[in-house]
Amino acid sequence: MSEITSRKTSRNASRTIGTRTTGLGLLTALLLTGCTPSTPQPGSSSHTTAPASASATSTAAPAPSASATVPADSDETAPPQSGDTVISSTITHDWSWPGPGSPYKIAHQVTPPIAPPPEPPLPYLYTLGAGQHPSDNPPYDQMSFRFKGAFPSYEIEYVPELIQDGSGKTIPMPGTASILRVVFHSAQAHSADGTSSTIVSAPPESVGYKAITSYAQAGDFEGYVSYGIGVGRPMGTVPQTKVRVYEVEKIEQGQHLYVVAVQLDSTAWK
Q1: What is the chain's Cα-based Rg?
Q2: How far is CA 183 from the centre of its chain?
């Protein structure tokens, strides 16, 4: 832990974020109505999520309203099985705009190693999912990051461009109105020995939805995993697209997952 903390401290001094390489029974079926998950890319590995951490603190975003409905993870890539269950589902940030300089921040306490070898010592990204929810109010598109082991901490913020971690190069995200950066702390997306990715499935990077047009991995280095989400097609005036975030801890397909679901209001592109 001291080594990871040390590396994070030194990295925070001059770090830029960049690229590198739903028990679920009838209720779940009802919740899925109106949601159109993205089909995993042929030949790609599949992604799933992991359980939530014991405590979390939130800053720089409004608390969920009393009437807010807490959705279950609704972008699974496989049908529910006996034994699937939602353990908890919590909105961590209600609809608002995490503009530059005002990121959503959620902190979860993670004390590595969270599992003995050969498991990774940190929460690790298992699968990604994407889905459309056109019948909700507001309508939205969703991208889910499913971890194993625990919930990582994370920050979500709109940025003018996506920068490659380490090299400082700009990651092109053409055909988007804006870019939402998601950075997970105390997390990884590679095996304990660093020789392979832990991600087993993911949607195509060119998602093609109204609000979520594309995404790109933007780092997996020294306890940080980051992504850029391309938001909406270009418009004359770039809308301040609102974002909602919720966490789901669940058992799915026999896997204990911790899901961070990022939802983007697609009203501007109806």
Answers
A1: 17
A2: 9
Closest CA to 83 of 164, 129, 25: 25
What sign does the CA torsion over 144, 145, 146, 150 have? Answer: negative
- Predicted confidence (pLDDT) per residue in 72-112, tens digit: 676 765 677 888 899 999 999 999 999 999 999 999 999 99
Q: Please, which residues bridge with residue 214 across strands?
A: 230
Please indicate, yes or no, whether the overall pTM of this predicted structure exceeds 0.85: no
Domain holding 121, by residue range, is 2-269
d(CA 270, CA 246): 23
Provide the residue type at 151 as one letter: F
- Separation of alpha carbons 213 and 203, rounded Å: 12
Question: What is the rounded distance in angstroms from the CA atom of residue 8 to the CA atom of residue 10?
Answer: 5
Number of domains making up the chain? 1
